[in-house]
Design goal:
Its main location: secreted. One of its GO terms (cellular component) is extracellular space. A hairpin with a 5-residue loop joins strand 5 (82-92) and strand 6. The protein has a ten-stranded antiparallel beta sheet with strand order 1-3-4-5-6-7-8-9-2-10, covered by helices on one side. Helix content is 13%, strand content 39%. It is globular, with a radius of gyration of 16 Å. It is built from two helices and ten strands, in the order H-E-E-E-E-E-E-E-E-E-H-E. The chain is mainly β. The chain has one domain: Beta Barrel (Lipocalin), CATH 2.40.128. The structure holds 2-acetamido-2-deoxy-beta-D-glucopyranose (NAG) (4 copies). The site of one 2-acetamido-2-deoxy-beta-D-glucopyranose has 4 residues, from loops.
Length: 183
């Protein structure tokens, strides 16, 4: 398999510990998060939407900063065991790190924090048919992140008032890893 040489590199990245000193929480340089990312875990105040067959259970593959400042999210979405590609263009707002996008309703998307290197956390508010749903997602390198990042994610859940008992781990929960990815 072609993926094997890549695994060694990825394993060494995955060994990194969460480092409080390199977190960025404002004045983001969006170009630095423009790259491959993978969904590590998610939390929501409506689990139905992120559990299996949930409309917001999205497997991140790539974030791309467009010339006009919008962010294109390339996700995979599982439909009856099949991986379907979804591209979402999040329009930038006048606030750094804040975006809006229509997807399963109207969404406000906020970059919550990143270290530009191993992880990025996005917060999203979705309004569908008059109901607001809040979702938090941790994206990282393709292989499992060190558990210290999960601890951080628990903290951020609490910051947004989300129940940290209900975090779901989506590491390798999709079967789409054999689709070749551009680096
Ligand atoms: C949660 O999401 C499901 C699926 O969209 C919906 O049917 C249900 O009403 C939602 N529950 C709440 C409490 O918003
Ligand atoms: C930015 O560019 C993308 C891709 O061309 C386009 O879909 C989007 O509507 C543009 N946004 C704005 C605000 O012009
Ligand atoms: C939207 O909400 C209305 C009123 O709350 C409800 O009657 C209707 O069934 C909902 N539609 C969908 C698609 O959930
Ligand atoms: C998620 O599950 C994988 C195994 O499937 C595990 O190795 C990893 O540590 C878990 N990640 C988190 C953040 O709990």
């Amino acid at each position: 398999m072609v993926v094997l040489p890549v695994l060694g590199l990825v394993l060494s990245l995955a060994a990194a510990q969460f480092n409080q000193d390199v977190i960025v929480q404002r004045n983001y340089n969006m170009a630095r998060i423009s790259r491959n990312w993978y969904t590590i875990c998610m939390a929501s105040d409506n689990m139905t939407r992120i559990e299996e067959n949930g409309d917001l259970r999205l497997f991140m593959r790539n974030i791309h900063l467009l010339k006009n400042g919008s962010l294109k999210f390339d996700f995979l979405f599982m439909v009856q065991g099949e991986c379907v590609a979804v591209a979402m263009v999040c329009e930038k707002t006048e606030k750094n790190g804040e975006f809006t996008v229509a997807y399963e309703g109207e969404n406000k998307v906020l970059l919550s924090e990143t270290d530009y290197r191993t992880y990025v956390i996005f917060y999203m508010e979705n309004i569908k048919n008059g109901t607001k749903t809040r979702v938090l997602a941790l994206y990282g390198n393709p292989l499992p992140l060190d558990r210290s990042y999960l601890k951080r994610f628990v903290n951020i859940c609490q910051k947004y008032g989300l129940d940290s008992q209900k975090i779901i781990n989506l590491t390798r929960k999709d079967n789409c890893y054999d689709i070749p990815q551009k680096n």
